[in-house]
Amino acid sequence: MKATLRCLLAAVCLTLPLRAAVTLGQLENFSGIHEWSSGDPNPNPPVIVADSGPLGVGDHSLRVTSNGGSGPGGRLIGFNETLWTGDYTAAGIFSLAADLRNTGTTTLSMRLAFNGPGGWFVTPVAQVTAFSGWMTRIFDICPVALVSAGGSSAVGTLASASELRILHSAGVDFRGARVSSSFLVDNVRAIPEPSTVLVLCLTGCLPLFRKR
Question: Taking the model in full, what pTM does it have?
Answer without folding.
Answer: 0.83
